[in-house]
Task: inverse folding
């Protein structure tokens, strides 16, 4: 648990200081797709996040997966990734600031996955 908290604190610090990549491979897997391409192919049931910030958000997904890796398995990963994507979609509707979106995703993910 301590390792998770330390990793989470470091992630929050990185985001707050703007220390995240703006060019990063877009995430696609476990029924979650992050893209800046409106014509990106996806399957029914996928959670698709369209954003000009798809690279930074993809990095965040990868970092969150590392933080919570001990809680993810072949079944739970679908709920995890889909949940993260749905939070992103909601925050992107109301927030223009990328850091605020990213920190909101971290907070929501911690609420859902941090104390299990």
Result:
């Amino acid at each position: 648990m301590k390792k998770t908290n330390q990793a989470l604190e470091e992630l929050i610090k990185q985001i707050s200081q703007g220390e995240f990549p703006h060019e990063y491979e877009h995430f696609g897997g476990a029924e979650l797709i992050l893209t800046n391409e409106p014509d990106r192919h996806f399957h029914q049931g996928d959670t698709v996040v369209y954003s000009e910030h798809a690279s930074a958000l993809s990095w965040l997904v990868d970092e969150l997966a590392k933080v919570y890796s001990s809680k993810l398995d072949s079944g739970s990963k679908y709920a995890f990734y889909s949940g993260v994507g749905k939070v992103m979609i909601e925050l992107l509707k109301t927030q223009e600031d990328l850091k605020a979106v990213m920190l909101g995703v971290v907070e929501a993910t911690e609420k859902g996955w941090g104390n299990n």
The chain has a mean pLDDT of 92. The first strand starts at residue 28 and ends at 29. Residues 2-113 form one domain.
